[in-house]
Amino acid sequence: MSDPFPPPRPELPCPFAKVFPSQLVRDDAFFMWLAYNQAIDAWRADEVPIGAVIELGGEVIASAHNQRDSTRDPTAHAEIIALGQAARASGDWRLNEATLYVTKEPCPMCSGAALMARIGRVVFAVSDPKMGCLGGATDLNALPQVNHRLTITRGVLERECLELLQAYFQQKRAEN
Ligand SMILES: [Zn+2]
């Protein structure tokens, strides 16, 4: 059996710098930059660089990055971790008034979790035609009998978040 408590892995250098937007303009780009910064933290932890933040009432109540490899947990996606944080922060698993910002379109699991959390709005940067389930590969939000609808915004900071993902995979390919 493998060690259930793996030692911390050395931090990787990331060629991209974090961006600190003005706190005065809390628009979609502002929150997506915070998700982007989380994605950089994922890269530094040698994880696929995907980050998420959840906004409620103009404040960030959750921020997380993908931790699948470091935790050896297939469910440790940025969105799942952030949804748990947000529910604990707000004291309610229902997140109708909250917005989830994530650097890549949510997968089947995370799209499902966003629906189950009844989150009000999902904003993502990069569409995923392979596994995205909010319109990329399929659309869980369009299930005919679903009792909650997410409001979706696509393409916020798409170029920046895509560059980060592509550069990470390029580097991984070069290493192998
Ligand atoms: Zn996911």
Distance between the termini: 26 Å
Helix content: 25-40%
Report the sheet with the most strands, covering strand number, pairing sense and barrel closure: 5 strands, mixed
Provide mean pLDDT, rounded.
95
Number of strands: 5
Sequence of secondary-structure elements: HEEHHEHEEH
Strand content: 15-25%
What spatial form do the alpha-carbon principal axes imply? globular
Small molecules in complex: zinc ion
**Which secondary-structure class do the elements indicate?**
alpha/beta
> Stretches where pLDDT falls below 50 for ≥5 residues?
none
Q: How are the strands of the largest sheet arranged?
A: 2-1-3-4-5
* Number of helical elements: 5
What is the radius of gyration?
Answer: 16 Å
Descriptors:
single chain; 176 residues; alpha/beta; five-stranded mixed sheet; binds zinc ion
Helix-strand blueprint:
Blueprint: H1 28-44, E1 51-56, E2 59-65, H2 68-71, H3 78-90, E3 99-104, H4 108-116, E4 121-126, E5 151-154, H5 158-175
Parallel strand pairs: 3-4, 4-5
Antiparallel strand pairs: 1-2, 1-3
Helix pairs in contact: 1-5
The structure holds zinc ion.
Explained architecture:
The chain has 176 residues and is an alpha/beta fold. 35% of the residues lie in helices and 16% in strands. A 5-stranded mixed beta sheet has the order 2-1-3-4-5. Helix 1 runs parallel beside helix 5. The radius of gyration is 16 Å and the shape is globular. Zinc ion binds at residues 77, 79, 106-107, 109-110.
